[in-house]
């Protein structure tokens, strides 16, 4: 099994887990996992059967191969999470194979820079589709299944950019991430009587391959973002690891959190709990 030791939640064994955005940004020579890939790994290490999709099939297959090499059970397929028909195809494929979906993880998310004055309407719409509509679409197709099962857990991946300004003008991404937190909160109330819980993980600065890549970019603006993220003011004095995000998702999907719903679980080393004036 996995070289990293994830916590074990016995109720998760044999659960069917669907991860939207299971691939990861690839960085030559890097062995770190992306948030979504690490989350899939955490579920595999708990004996779950993972089904993942990604717009980039090669990236999804890279994760699946790593998981299978560690003894995990993982199937993947290509899908664009902004397309309702693609999302439906993925959900149908999981139902065809396993007949149920116990856990849904919405991991896809990506930022584009811009203030309200500078961001184009086209980029705004793309950001809303990718970061927010994608969450609605997967919930639209999966929640009726969980409702019929009278059981299920959804974990959405938000961001502290949806809670505070984090030093980078990214108005569309921040707005979409804030909306994910609220979508999760109000949907959780609607589904609470149906045995289905919805929560979100709200990551802070996490050292994932995507961030590593910014530091290696030949664009100065990317390297500047990398510097801001890595020369941070995190009270714990370090960035988070993808496994920190994965552990939070694992707990939120397990019965250990069975009385928790509608919550944003902030995983940021204390960053958003301070005023910025330091200690
Ligand atoms: N790294 C951080 O510091 C940080 C902080 C806060 C939140 N997050 C959130 O973490 C999540 C992603 O983390 P990651 O490390 O897994 O990122 P990643 O970019 O490495 O992986 C995301 C995967 O999503 C896939 N994807 C992109 N568009 C898609 C689409 N339309 N349909 C299907 N798949 C698509 C990509 O191909 C990629 O494989 C995002 O929601 C991001 O907002 C990250």
TrEMBL record:
UniProt KW NADP keyword: yes
Organism field: Cucurbitaria berberidis CBS 394.84
One example GO MF annotation: oxidoreductase activity, acting on the CH-OH group of donors, NAD or NADP as acceptor
InterPro entries hit by this protein: NAD(P)-bd_dom_sf (IPR036291), SDR_fam (IPR002347)
Protein name, entry field: Short chain type dehydrogenase
Family indicated by similarity: Belongs to the short-chain dehydrogenases/reductases (SDR) family.
Keywords: NADP, Oxidoreductase
Superkingdom of the organism of origin: Eukaryota
Keyword Glycosyltransferase listed: no
Lineage of source species: Eukaryota, Fungi, Dikarya, Ascomycota, Pezizomycotina
